[in-house]
Structures are given as structure tokens and as C-alpha cells.
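Morning - zinc ion inputs below, output right after.
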Amino acid sequence: MAAMKLSTAFGIDPASPAIRRHNVQARAALEAHATGRPTRVLLKCSEWVGQHGFYADEVGLDYREYYTNPDLMLQVQLEAARRRREIPVHDLILGEAPAEGWMTGVDLWPAVAPGAFDCELMYRRETVIANRSRHLSKEECDALVLPSIEGGGIIGTIRQFHEHLVERYEGKLTFLGRTVDHIRNGIGTSGFFSLALDLRGEEIMADMYEDPPFVHRFLLRLADWTDALTRRWADPAERDAPFPLTDHGIDMLSPAMYEQFILPILLEKNRDKLQVPQLFHHCGRGQHLFPILARHFKIHTLHALTYPLLDIERIRVEVGDDAHIYALISDGVLSLGKPDDVRYAVKSLLTPRLKRHGRLSLISGDLLPGTKMDNLHALYEAVKEFGQY
Ligand SMILES: [Zn+2]
């Protein structure tokens, strides 16, 4: 079998003055943060297996192949991680393999849970995998046989991909001086309410008014299933983690509906862990949900809060100064705007008042295909300029 074709060196010269200058500055800013005396807001590159849009653009990746060929999946993830370390648009050390190792894994997010339930998946050339809702009737929802967490639907495929990658590459493949270890299985969900939307569709929100007992019953079954799935496939150290607050789709719910249908399940599932600080990832428009979450849970990290869709200053007041806020500039600005729009967005976000309270970082989002590199340069320059403490 042919070996995987991978780059054998970074495509930049780490000794060149521009790269050295970047690395000195970024290292100083990162170290200042690590020691609790930040000099400016950081722009972190969120690294996870599903983030490769900018690289996909560069190489003209066909996403239909990416999602069906585990070798290509691994290759793209490694090369995207390499490429990220060649472009000075984040506080990331360039021309060096990451000290914490390469982030790789099976990547069928966000179609894992819906794929387990046989939702129709859409493989498209230009962008990430997606799924349709099954629009089941209430009767079908009640009669639904939940898939096996061992191998139901697409979970079987994910396991095959994972076993293949581990067997062939884990601990054996070296990329740019670092061994590829800990290839993740990529099994998880986007939350039980998300899954309810995948199965019942937006009708679930009318059900909340017309048939509350059905909604309680259905959501609890799905929450039990997502809980079992996540714990079964989590790394051993994370099997006892709190039940996640993160759920894509919840921002469509009013505070009253959230408190009636979602919150009781979160409280019950976390009844022994209410004092354990949690991460809350929210890339939507759920401004109204933060006071509710802050009232009931301790939160150590608020991740992917999107500006200007959300009023980050107000959220800071609502959740207090302890949470580390990771904000990002909306794709609408970053993909569709001009460099000046990006600069203005960063300037209006990084107010002295926001910077005075609690830890704050910016991250780049998923960098969907089509994001202009000029805008990423403008983003980084603006963070360095307006992010000074
Ligand atoms: Zn998200």
C-alpha cells in the first residue's frame, strides 16, 4: 500500500526576519497570558479536526472525498495544521510542530448523531457534511428505536475509520518531526435539542405549546442517549465530566421555553456536578440564555461567542469575571466584509470596559471556504492594535 504523501518540511523559513519577528511577538503575548499578566488580547487559532476551510480553498479539496476516505481525512488535517503554522494570522508559533501534538481524528461532525439516527446526509463538493431533518411525526418519535451506541447507523462507519487510522498510523507516522499520536474517534453530539430538531424538525417548537408531555418525554430520551453515547466514547479522563450545556439550536427558544424544557434536564443530569465549572460553547444568537445559565451553573469558559451577533459586554456582566470568554468575529463580517469592516468590528468589540473584566481572547472560527486571507491579516493586525491592555 502506498504511504501517505505528506509535506516533509514547512513551506516557510523560520530564520527569515519576518517569521522571527512574528514568533518573538506571539511567544511574548502567549507567555504573558500563561503567567496571568496579559499584555494584550490574544487571537487564538481554534484547532480541531473540523477546521480546514482555508486549506481546502488553497488545494481545491473535494469534501465528498474527504468525508469518505479516512486517509485523506488525516492527510488534510495534518497539512491544514502545517499550513496554519506558515501564515502569520494568529498568535501561533510558525514553522514549528505543536508541542501538544497534532490534533487529528475522525471528522464527521456535525453529522454524527443525526447519522446514527439515519437522517439523510448531504455530501457536497465545496463544504462540510450536513444532514436533513427526518420530520418524524410525534407517534414516530415515540415509537423510535434508539440506535446502538456501539455501532448504530454512521457510528459503525466512524468506528471503522477510527480503527483503520489507529492501526495504520497512530504512533507510527511522523509528521514534521512529531509523531502522530492520539487519533480521536470523533464520536459526540451537538446536544439533545439539536438532535430533536434533526428528528422531529422545527415542529418540536410548536409541540412545546401544544403537547408539553410529549416534548418532555422525547427530549429526556434523547438526552439519555446522547449522555450514554458521549460517555461510552469519551477519553477515559473525561467519562465523568459534567453533562454538556452546549446545544446548537437552543437560541431559537424563548427564555420561558428553555427554562421549561431544556433546563430541567440539564439540572437533573448535572445534579452531582453543579459546582463543577463547565465550558459553554455557543456560536448562535442566544443572548437571552446567558442569565439563565449563569444563575444555575458555574462556567469557566464561554467559547465562540459571536460578535456582533451577541453583546459580549452585557454577557460579561451577566456571567461575572471568572469565565474566560473566547469571542469571534462573525463569518458575515470575516467572509463577506472588507478589511476595514473587520478592523471596525474588532475595534468596537475590544472596548476598555470589556478588557478590564476577566480573561478575554479572540479565536478565528471554522474559517469556512471562501474566507479571504486579506481579512484574516486585518483581523490579526486589529487585535494587536486594539487589544493592548
Ligand atoms: Zn458551534
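Note: The mean pLDDT is 95.

O.
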